[in-house]
Amino acid sequence: MKRVMPYALVLALCAIGTPVAFTRITRAPDWQWCGELVSRVETTERVVALTFDDGPSERGLDAVLPVLKARAIPATFFLIGRTLERNPDLGARLLGDGHELGNHSYSHRPMLWLSQDDIAREVESTDAILRRVGFRGPILFRPPFGRKLLGLPWYLASTQRTTIMWDVDPESYVQAASDLVAYTREHVRPGSIIILHPMTKSGGETRAALPAIIDGLLSDGYRFVTVSELLALQEHSDAVPAR
Ligand SMILES: [Zn+2]
């Protein structure tokens, strides 16, 4: 019995630990096994990029766009291809306000175990929809749920695409609007990428927090840029790229 116990314990810990470790690896915001991944850039300039995932939804745009417009702030919206396809007018609204659009897959299903053909369909069809609504310039990609393992990074690397993750994810740690503001201000540093989800039905606290998040960071001396502008800053600096 004494001998069996340690093995049983190790097996139990593995059974509990393996899924946790697996999720950690596949959701790691600052690592993937191949291709370029950016979760922030190294810079001494107080610049920050706001990124909004999912949608577009009218609810989200009605809440977010006036806030950004009033402060002349650009942002990057990682959109779901299928949702954008059904709502091209919302894409046009985003472009009309000068924001950057990114690819967040066509169906927003987890892409961990998809074949290369299925990955290609998810990525390429969404790029095509982004072009159809009028987006010009390089298209950045963010995986659904931020999850990636082998096939997705391989596809993105072999088609010279950059994976954009984040280093500030307030919604994963706090919920109330005031806490989202405080968390974000506390964790943003020069070159940060913030992820928020104001498009979804459950994004009410995020929508409520957004004006104070932006105003707080402005008063902390930050300037807002799109993710592409942030990447360009990195390319023009001598700093080591964040990978
Ligand atoms: Zn998403």
Describe what this molecule looks like in 3D.
The chain has one domain (about 30-235): Glycoside hydrolase/deacetylase (TIM Barrel, Alpha-Beta Barrel). The longest helix has 24 residues, at about 5-25. The chain is α/β, with parallel strands linked by helices and about 240 residues long. Helices cover about 45% and strands about 10% of the residues. The chain is globular. Strands 2, 3, 4, 6 and 7 form a 5-stranded parallel sheet that branches. A two-stranded parallel sheet has the order 1-5. About 35% of the residues are buried. Helix 2 links the parallel strand 2 (about 45-55) and strand 3. It binds zinc ion.
Number of domains: 1
End-to-end CA span: 48 Å
What is the name of the CATH superfamily?
Answer: Glycoside hydrolase/deacetylase
CATH class: Alpha Beta
CATH architecture: Alpha-Beta Barrel
Per-chain topology:
Elements: H1 4-27, E1 36-38, E2 47-53, H2 58-70, E3 76-79, H3 81-86, H4 88-96, E4 100-103, H5 116-132, H6 151-158, E5 162-164, H7 177-187, E6 192-196, H8 204-219, E7 223-225, H9 227-235
Parallel strand pairs: 1-5, 2-3, 2-6, 2-7, 3-4
Helix pairs in contact: 2-8, 7-8
Bound molecules: zinc ion.
